[in-house]
Design brief:
This protein has 164 residues and is an alpha/beta fold. The protein is 35% helix and 21% strand. It has a single domain, classed as Stationary-phase Survival Protein Sure Homolog, Chain: A (3-Layer(aba) Sandwich), CATH 3.40.1210.10. It is globular, with a radius of gyration of 14 Å.
Length: 164
Amino acid sequence: MFAPVADPSSLRILISNDDGINAPGIKVLERIALTLSKDVWVVAPETEQSAAGHSLTIRRPLRVRKVSRRRFAVDGTPTDAVLLGVNHVLKARKPDLVLSGINRGSNLGEDVTYSGTVAAAMEGTILGIPAIALSQFINHPHPVKWGTAEHWAPEVIRKLLAVG
């Protein structure tokens, strides 16, 4: 468990995912995070890494590309992205919270063992940082209703932070 947080406005938040730096879900999560704190950073895989699980890249060097002031793309897995985010991009001041997602599709049951979204949050927790993974159900063949996540996620995040 982690200490409860009543006011998230002073938190440094690291966002990652498994759908890639340009995925719609990570943009939604970034908007949500910016309603909680102004100190929001995104370090995510360059390309989609769905079902990467908790894998690491160990047979080649990783590259970090600065996309904009607080957005970075990593040519690796979601776990790589969180590790590089914490230990390289934000090494001067580590994040207080890791948010992962918003995954395009639900992560339920055994899906969590394959989910790069869940793995990114797990890596944050392994590094001693509170972490939350968020996923959005898809009702195929209909488009993703990102508004559902945008409506409910801020409340869910605040409640989880409040209980620690």
